[in-house]
Amino acid sequence: MSSSLTDTPIAARTDRPAPAGIDPRGPQFAAALTTVVLAAVLLLAPSPLGVGLLAAQALVFALGAGLGAGASPYGLLFRTLVRPRLAPPAELEDEGPPRFAQTVGLGFAVVGLVGFLTGLTLLGQVAVGFALAAAFLNAAFRFCLGCEVFLLARRVTA
After folding, report:
1. CA 25 to CA 138: how far, in whole Å?
2. How far apart are CA 140 and CA 146, in angstroms?
């Protein structure tokens, strides 16, 4: 059986890489889960359960920041359970800004952990509160505060 050019997928017919980017709904989904986790942390901390939830969220942030959105548990949930039920996104977005936002979230989670583990409960609550506010903005309004800081910094340094 012969294969014609029209039978070959476009990506296979060109030596250009496939367009890079992530589905912008993925980070919004992750932000919604993060909002729930961080709200629970504020309700439960400094109890061991609250601190454990914050440590788990810090790990989620670390995976998202270091390996990308698809490598985080929330990214995996989105990709396997949510994304197949949605229409394709209108466009993909650069992964850089969300990875930076995950790094910022990791910073706040670490400060929160240090606060709770050293008895500085107010420090922990404030740090988690800032992370919660940023996650809520993304989840509810698709406004990624960390992404905006990333883009602003890139414009200033360019």
Report:
1. 10
2. 15
| Cα–Cα distance measured from residue 102 to residue 27, given in angstroms and rounded to the nearest whole number | 10
Four-CA torsion 56, 109, 74, 94, nearest 10 degrees: -150
How does pLDDT run across 52-102, given as a tens digit for each residue? 999 999 999 999 999 998 899 999 999 999 999 999 999 999 999 999 999
Kindly report whether the peptide bond that precedes residue 46 is cis, defined as omega within 30 degrees of 0. yes
Tell me the CA end-to-end span of the chain in Å, nearest whole number.
Answer: 53
* pTM for the structure as a whole: 0.86
Domain segments of the chain as ranges: 23-157
Q: CA of 90: how far to CAs of 23, 24, 100, 128, in Å?
A: 9, 9, 23, 33
